[in-house]
Give the backbone structure.
Amino acid sequence: MIVAGCDVGSLTSKAVILNDRTMLSHAVTRSTFRPDDSARTVMDRALSVAGIGMDQVRCCVGTGYGREKIPFVDKVYSEIACHARGARHLMPSVHTVIDIGGQDCKAIRLDDAGAVVKFVTNDKCAAGTGRFLDVMARLLGVDLDELGKLSAQAQAPLSLASTCTVWAQAEVIHHLNENTPIADIAAAVNQAMAGRVAILARSAGLNREVCMTGGVAKNTGVLTHLEKLLDVRIRRLRIDPQIVGALGAALYAHDNKGGAPDDRSRL
Amino acid sequence: MIVAGCDVGSLSAKAVVVEDGRVVASHVIRAKPLPRDSAREVMGDLMRSAGISPDSLDYCVGTGYGRNSIEFADSVESEIACHAKGAWKIVPDARMVIDIGGQDAKAVRFDDRGDVVRYVYNDKCASGTGRFLEIMAEALDVRLEDMGAIAARAQDPVTLSNQCVVFAETEIISLINEGRDISDIISGLHTAMAHRVASLARSIELAGAVTMSGGVAKNPGMFAALQEALQVKIRPMAIDPQIVGALGAAVIAMEKAGGNGGA
């Protein structure tokens, strides 16, 4: 049975197509101002990679910030539920999921059965969300992907005094004017980001294993700083961490049509 | 008796000279990279324009973020103490001053002598400080000082869902794309910021008449929005609200030099 999940986020949209819980294809595209267009674009991409048409998809679940505006979904689920479901599917031992999106950050704690016990989310303040890194990468003139790697090249550790993105920006500009090496500033940015996320994660409560989802999980600088701050190893996922929410949505779509229940031994 | 107050902030420096309890001269400049230079320049300009010799000053109190770099100050006081004293001097029956600076916001409650009773301060988050309006003015391509007048034309003010400066900036860009009128957007910005500042002020409870200081108080749109958010009438200041801290420093200087600060 073919099903799909579509996660329309503030910055990127993701789609996953499953056939009996095996991934047929996935796609990630940049979101536009219109969530309905973003959803169509990313779903068309995933469908064409899989070489199928929308008529072959038995059920589609939507999630993400733009979920209410996706025209083709049968049902919508919260991002919390979808990230938890996707992460648990990929890693049955996971009990804490830290998801950092383009405009928010969530820490989700699961029980042994995979049910959400507690979650804490920040979407009020840009600090500690992907947006913080986005602003800083632009200021430093580096790619978002490069920003994470620069941490490893830092020589003289530096730290930012401000939490607020606006004030931290002024600090970074000051360091740039002082000719501080970019890698040192980048490390400070990644560390500041990790510091903010650590507070959120701790308030949700950490239970091993811990994994990270969302685009920021690809930033190795943030990841290693976060491991140090939380004193825990963060397990790497075997798929692109950005598509975990869409995967969770697709798994819910599978359930919805009475698909065979999750068989952990097959994961 | 001639005394002075000098307030060296992060964005501007202000100086006030008080003679026998009356303000005789004041001056505001943009801050220099070094607070010491800002202090020297603002006080030097003021002395020259008022025709006062620095030697004739009986006492000078420094305040503000750069207060420890003011070489000619006889002593220093916190901005909190100076804003309370300055606000009380101008609006004697007020018991709270809300000061919105370029990089901070504070609410200070004071007694019938202008001495601080309780205060609350935000310099951690740019939302609710002058920086919020500055960034929005840039995004909207209007001058900061025109925002009040533009907001006065609003017909159908927008409601912003974000408080964070970074997120609110994105939100207003999408409002522009939706074709919303700029006056409606600016009016909505004032309301959003006023709510932020009001919740700061309410955290120490309102008591007695309220007045407002700092550069943002010159924006009539913000003034009105804050009245609305607090549900109280704010007493306007009869002087440039930007020099209240420096004035308070001068009043404290008078007290220190043995004069009657309140007269």
Q: What stands out?
A: Chain A is about 40% helix and 20% strand.
